[in-house]
Protein: phosphoenolpyruvate--protein phosphotransferase
Amino acid sequence: MMESATRSARNILTGLHEVMASKNHAQGKLNHVVNIIGEALTSEVCSIYLLRDGALELFATRGLNEAAVHVTRLGLGEGLVGTIAENVETLNLDEAAAHPNFRYVPETGEERFHSFAGVPIVRSERAVGVLAVQHVEPRKYEEVEIEALQTVAMVLSELIANADLIDDPEVGSGIETGTIVLTGLPLVKGAAAGVAIFHQPNVRIEHTVAEDIEAERQRVYSAFDKMREQIDRMASQIDFGTGGEHEEVIATYKMFAYDEGWSRRINEAIDSGLTAEAAIERVQQRTRMRMRQIDDPLLADRMHDLEDLSNRLLRIVSGQMSTAAQLGLKKDSILIARNLGPAELLEYDKRRLRGVILEEGSLTAHVVIVARAMGIPVLGRVRGIRHKVRDGEMILLNADEKSVIVRPSASTEESFQHQLVDRQKKKARYAAMRDDPAVTKDGLPITLMINAGLRDDMSALATTGAEGVGLFRTEFQFLISATLPQRERQQRFYRDVLDAAGDKPVIFRTLDIGGDKALPYLKDETSEEENPALGWRALRLSLDHAGLMKTQARALIEASAGRTLNVMFPMVSEPWEFDAAKAIFEGQIEFLGKLKKQLPSKVRYGAMLEVPALAETLDVLLPKIQFLSIGTNDLTQFLFAADRADPRLAERYDWLSPAILRFIKRVVDATEGYGVDVAVCGEMGGRSLEALALIGLGIRRLSITPAAVGPVKAMIRSAEHAGIQAKMTELLASPPQNLRSALSVWATAQGIETG
Structure:
């Protein structure tokens, strides 16, 4: 067993350095390498597989049958070796045959070996080979041994690339010449056109083995100092508003830049004998592999921030500093990156940067929060975009439609530009309607409110003319924080929101976490759930963590001193859950009253109807509440048993389905006579045709995205309530095969503006 990963890796690298400096041919060097590694790890088998002609070929081995060399070939994803290369991941198994992807290769003679460990050999972010060790006795390899293998794999990458033994990872990238259409996940809505700009070229590491370890260490220290200066300078130059969540994002980002653990790991890699560039890349590769193993989206986002910093540090230490931001944008541009950190986005000229396309990305990523504050559309999870477009080619980005058009025809580009002009004209017209009331032609007023979750969102009240915030998602503050927000911080945040709203109401929804919104610092059983959307989330989780809910209740109560507090509980399944949540708030009110604290002038309680079961007990719940919000996003997936996060089902179930509409109508009818405000606060209400149907069902209050206020208001002012009510009664009594189409045709004939 090795005394340490550092010492073992250094010994191996010393041997590899001698091999690389020798005059042996490439095959002889690889044969020597497997012996050095096998002896250092006291492993009976050490093998190197390299990617040639699209398959992983056994190039050298110590311990397997020599006759299998250049004979055994495995496809990507085939066997353990193919799995490592396809997923660019590490495997460490005490019993190889027990792995579901194990494949027995008779000619190798490996049947007597039980343990197996393998790491990818990476070049240009792709696996170009696999380094594997095996042992007769069943045992897991120690972490220090795996680290030594990963370090050696880096050096092998340089050796085999220089010897021209592998497929060029840059060849066969699949770049076409004609128009292609790609799809992705909308992260920030909007549309834009511009030329493709790649965020950064790959930094090609030419030398991996250090000649002078102390000199390499000083290079890294200097690079860290320079990187931290850059981050501090950017943080002080933020110019898109104050007091927003993006500032908290940058603060968290700075925390990573000053993290001693990260710099220590790079130092350890240098101690093992790597150059500064190779040490940073070594730690970065390990981060990427960990990212692939993380199911928690919040932890994955934190790893993306670290990836961003690694890229920055690598560029500084290698002297390859020029990103597209530093070189400057000459034209309207669409930025393309595998992923992007918030600080990197802030470097770009907002006058020229029109949109961002990411191969990865998630709704809760820090860069998304910053992009939203900058007003830049972002489309994420566009697979292979970096290998399907060239720098400078025209791109049409429509995040609203989840699409990217690469190399459009002249006619397509012209049509898209006309659409962008039309969008601007519509925006101007909607802005001019800001102070006009949302009243139908026959005089029925409809209350339009916005959904919000960030401090910056509150500015939309003024720009849209909305009558308040019908849904304030309090969990956003928790999702972007590295630690649990303390009560005082929550209180300041809620007070700022109320101050920004002025005399307009804000309905605060208590924490809706769990499911697809997991908190890395709140450990519970949700991480192991098979169906998290149906599991321990939202109000269920809050009631289980009573301390968490008491803290939020007190923060909301104190922030609302002298004002009306509107509080809403998410995912109420049965009336007793509402009772339990309300009791927590009432208990905190009593506690603060005894402390002579100023209390809200009034507290109004409400519930979200997302779980269909609640509709069966509305007669019990309604006397206890002042308002009811129908959350159509979750309600739809629960009614149809369809996970809304599953792309195969995303477009399958229509909001204008008779099942959904009849359900909502039944809820509206059940509330009559109780004096309860009923609203729809899901995405359904933000679509003009769907909003028209909801008004026909008796909905008088909508809480929607700020961007939807203008179009929905225009629809309301062009419609007559009596007519739509009669039409919806007719359609639900005898539903046509396509209710959406029937309603759309009718609305067009009536001159109602729905698109």
Observations:
- The first helix runs from residue 5 to 21.
- The chain is about 45% helix and 15% strand.
- Confidence is low (pLDDT under 50) at residues 170-175.
